[in-house]
Design brief:
Distance between the termini: 80 Å
CATH topology of the largest domain: Immunoglobulin-like
Number of helices: 1
CATH architecture of the largest domain: Sandwich
Structural class: mainly beta
CATH superfamily of the largest domain: Immunoglobulins
Strand content: over 45%
Strand order of the largest sheet: 2-1-3-5
Order of helices and strands: EEEEEEEEEEEEEEEH
Shape: rod-shaped
Length: 198
């Protein structure tokens, strides 16, 4: 049962009651209603929960209706996104210090950074499509410039995306002796191969 869901009650296009809050038992009571057609509208979900897609409930009170008319409204819990940062060659190695930008369906963004356990966590997510993009690679690794798309829906409570990084290995530097009177030159491998082809 959910506390602090807030509702309004409308009849014939006019608001007849507001500030209707569910109690500790998840119950709100609206007394002294006349015959007619009503709309019960949820305007604020309980903390940690998502507003229902259809937030209006039609209620008809007519001759013969019971004195108490129960209405049940369900809310989905907000979702959680976990980003795991892995070494591409050794997936048991989780990487600290990667930074990400997460873009929500409404265009707002959050910046996350992986901790020493290689994960970053974003909570309180509503349904929709989220974009996850790495903006800074862990030290010693190559940035993964791809954008990951995550669909947050009712298939799970916690969603996980894994992003891999390749360890940065610089080109080797080959030292060749110079001619007498000339300085020694440092050539990259691709420069040396070019020299061989001449």
């Amino acid at each position: 049962m959910l506390k602090n869901a807030e509702f309004e009650l409308w009849k014939d296009g006019k608001k007849v009651a507001d500030n209707i809050m569910t109690d500790d038992n998840g119950i709100a009571i609206i007394p002294n209603l006349l015959l007619g057609n009503y709309k019960l509208i949820e305007i604020n979900a309980p903390e940690g929960y998502i507003m229902p897609t259809a937030n209006e409930t039609d209620i008809q009170i007519k001759v013969g209706s019971p004195l108490q008319i129960p209405v049940t409204i369900e809310n989905d819990i907000l979702r959680t996104l976990i980003i795991r940062k892995l070494d591409r060659s050794d997936k048991t190695k989780l990487l600290e210090g990667a930074e990400f930008t997460v873009t929500a369906p409404d265009g707002t963004t959050e910046t996350l950074k992986t901790g020493n356990d290689g994960t970053a966590v974003l909570t309180g997510l509503k349904f929709g499509k989220y974009l996850v993009k790495e903006t800074k690679a862990p030290q010693g690794y190559i940035l993964d410039a791809r954008t990951n798309t995550i669909m947050i829906d009712n298939t799970s409570i916690v969603f996980t995306v894994e992003v891999e990084n390749q360890l940065y290995i610089p080109d080797p530097i080959i030292i060749t002796p110079g001619q007498p009177g000339t300085p020694t030159r440092r050539l990259h491998r691709h420069q040396l191969l070019h020299q061989h082809r001449v």
